[in-house]
Amino acid sequence: MAKTHALTSPPSCFKQRRTSEPAPAMPTTYHIVPTQAHDNLVRAAYVHRGYTAAEAEDAARFCEMASAHGIRTHNAIKALHLDHLFGSATGGCKPGAEIRVIEKKFAASEAWDAQLKLGQSVAFRAMERCMELADKYGVGQVSVDNAFHYLWGGGYVMDAARKGYIAYTNCTSTLAEVVPFGGKFPVLGTNPHSWGMPTQDACGFPIVIDWATSTVAMGRVQQLKREGKPLPAGAAVDKEGRPTTDANEAAWLLPFGAHKGYGLSLLIEVMGGMIGGSLPTLRGGGAHPDVKACAFPEGEKRTSSFYFQVIHPDAISSGMFAKGRSFADNVKAVIDDILGHGNEGCMLPGQPEAQNAAHTAKAGGLLFTEAEVEALNEIADEVQMARFEVSDLPTYEVP
User: CA–CA separation, 203 vs 350, rounded Å?
Assistant: First the structure.
């Protein structure tokens, strides 16, 4: 049985950001936390909450990957807080659960019942299975029902892209916080989706497109409310469904790009429904007060759905490249053309993460703000491990 969790509210440093928003600029000074010490803490926290050693290892691997690439909104602090709110503390995730593979007749496709297993463990295994299928059939896909939040989808596709594959994933998010285009009641999740392209030879890193389908995150609304700043137009509505730029009046989110973001979010919801997901308004127990005020309907589901796909580049390549270019040379020529013609200052998706990873490597450890170190210390207190002394940690200056 999982033990009681000490973290009952978000760490003070945590400001949520969905992947629909660009990563905020990194502060100038970070404290360097040794990677091994970080990973040991994460493993201990998950084991303390009842997870198996293998699940704890997956969690540590994921949190290290997120922190190394500057994904501050999906690091160990966020992962363990979500586990407390919706996971092992509330029955939304079951430590030690085993994945059940549902028999299908399609050689390159698998459907899984995650049975509420830790999302990071499920996602790593699903992407690995997709790569195995792609090696054999050119393409592989895995759908997952009864799933728990896998956090940063970009990490899984980035990992596959580094191994030479084209990779994709999407998921239905935990809560329905987004109002559909032309509507007034939140019925959609922020529903992130992620693409990874093996472009290391062309530009030095995988191109990774990773974003949610809402204009901003609810955490961004809360941040602007604290700072007394307005929201961008088209980002939110008030409790009556009226558009507002007043962060104090914002109750729900809007999809990015009006009907375009709505359409993409809708596709992910319907696809999730085909996989096995149920009513969006009931996921996570419900987000809207009118939904939460009612008893949860008997026989309904509150879980998310995942989808993973991997394509072997050789499976889609005609080989007929202009001027006799090779596969790698042609991809580089395409990217160089896009970044030419006066566009040299444009940034490629995945470039900020690559830059953050370079800073991490140069620092020789994971980079955290002082407030984040204190949040890690709250986790250390939970598992009765030694705290990090901020004054003892070396610092790293980001130019």
Answer: 10
CATH number assigned to the domain comprising residue 56? 3.30.1370.60
Is residue 365 situated within a structural domain? yes
Q: How far apart are CA 13 and CA 43, in angstroms?
A: 22
Q: Would you say 47 and 241 are in contact if contact means Cβ atoms under 8 Å apart? A: no
Around Cβ 35, how many Cβ atoms within 10 Å? Answer: 16
Read off the pLDDT of residues 209-248 as tens digits, 9 standing for 90 and up.
Answer: 998 899 987 767 766 787 788 999 999 999 888 899 999 9
How do strand 236-237 and strand 252-253 relate by DSSP bridges? antiparallel
Decide: 157 and 168 in contact? Cβ < 8 Å.
yes
Report the candidate in 181, 184, 153 with the shortest Cα–Cα distance to residue 304: 153
Q: Model confidence over 118-129: pLDDT tens digits?
A: 999 999 999 999
Q: From edge to edge, which strands make up the β-sheet containing 366-368? A: 366-368, 29-33, 395-397
Is the pLDDT score of 11 beyond 70? no
Residue 219 lies in a domain: no
15 or 100, which is more confident?
100
Answer left, alpha or beta for residue 79, where phi above 0 means left and psi between -120 and 50 means alpha.
Answer: alpha
Decide if pLDDT at 354 tops 80.
yes
3-state class (DSSP) for residue 169: strand
10 Å CB burial of residue 396 (0-12, 13-18, 19+) is middle
Tokens of 374: 């204190």
pLDDT digits (tens, 9 = 90+) for 92-131: 999 999 999 999 999 999 999 999 999 999 999 999 999 9
Count of domains for the chain: 1
Judge whether residue 6 has pLDDT over 50.
no
Q: Does some domain include residue 230?
A: no
Q: Examine residue 132 and state whether it is found in any structural domain, yes or no.
A: yes
- Report in angstroms the alpha-carbon separations of 351 from 107, 209, 289, 298, 348: 36, 10, 40, 47, 5
pTM: 0.89
Distances (CA, A) of 284 to 6, 86, 173, 177: 21, 7, 9, 11
Q: CA-to-CA distance for 59 and 88, rounded, in angstroms?
A: 14
- Domain residue limits at 140: 29-214+255-319+348-397
Sign of the Cα torsion 154, 157, 163, 164 reads negative
